[in-house]
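Lab notebook: predicted structure, single chain.

Context: the supervisor wants predicted structures on file for every construct in the current expression panel, including those that have not yet been purified. This is the next one on the list. No modifications to the sequence; it matches the entry in the shared construct table.
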Amino acid sequence: MRAMQMTRIVSVAEDDAPLTLTEVPTPECGPDELLLRVHACGVCHTELDEIEGRTPPPRLPVIPGHEVVGSVAALGRDVRGHQLGDRVGVGWIHRGSGAADENLTADFEATGRDANGGYAEYMSVPAAYAIPIPESFSDEQAAPLMCAGAIGYRALRLTGLENGQSLGLTGFGGSAHIVLQLTRHLYPDSPIAVFARDEKSRAFAASLGADWVGHTTDRAPHPLRAIIDTTPAWTPVREALANLSPGGRLVINAIRKEDSDKEALLGISYHEHLWLEREIKSVANITARDIAEFLPIAAQIPIRSTVEVFPLERANEALVALKRAPVTGAKVLKIL
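Prediction complete. Output recorded below exactly as produced.
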C-alpha cells in the first residue's frame, strides 16, 4: 500500500519534504482490531509537533495521521459490534485503558505517533477506538471532527461556560472554526470574540458569526468569562489573560507550545494577568468517549468544516502550508 512515512526529525520551517511517499505492506489486524481502508485523514498541528520533535515518535519510521475516516475492510476474530463496510473514524488515542481519564495517563498509544496512522491507504486499530461516523458527513467533512472538533468540544466543556457568558477564541484554524459553531448551538446567548493575527482569519471568523474580531494583541470590548487558545505560540497566552474577567478561565488547547516567542511569558504581570482568581487550564488529548459524545451533536447542528483537500502524495504540501501560512479551516488528505 502507499503511505507517507516520517523517517526523521526535521524543521518544517526549513524542509519542504518532511515525509516520504513509499510502498509498505498492508497491515494485518489483531484479534481485537479492525483493518480500515482509509478514505480521508485530517492534517493536524500535532503532526508538526511530531515531525519537529516536540512530541517525537518512540521509533521511526512511522506513518502519521490521527484524524482518520475509513471503512472496515477486515475484522479480528474477537471483534463484535462492527461489520465489513462500516464507516468509522479514529482519533488521537489508538489504544488505551478505556477509563474516563485514559487521556491523562502516560501509557496510552497515540495514533500516528506510537502506532501507524492514517496517512496511508490502510491502517489497523483496536475496535474499541473506531467510532461510527454519522451519515450526514462526507469523509472530508468528518475527518477534522475526529481531533480538531472533538478536542474543541472537550476544551469548551473545560471552560465551564454557561449560556450568556462570553467566550473568546484566540487562533482561528481547524479547531476554533468548529468550536464557534458548537458554541452557537450549546450557548446561543453567549457573545463570541475571536483573536487572530492575520486579517484573513479574522474575516473568516466574522463570516461564521463571531460577535467581535480583533488582532491577537487587541482588547475585546468587554472582559471575557472564558477563552480557548488553539495556537502553538505563547504571546496569545499572555494576551488572553489580559482579556479575562475576574474569575475567568483560559483553556490552552495545544499538545505542545513552540519556543519561538517563549520570552512573551516574561511580560506576564501577576496583578494584571492572574490576580482576581483568573485561571489557566490545559486540555490534554481526547478520549474515544469524547468523540462518541461529540459526533451526534455535530450532526445535529450540523457543523460544517471548511476544508482544503489534498491527495495523499501532496501531504508535504499540506504540512508546509500549515506551518508557514495563515490557516483557514482544516486541511484534509483524500486517500481512497
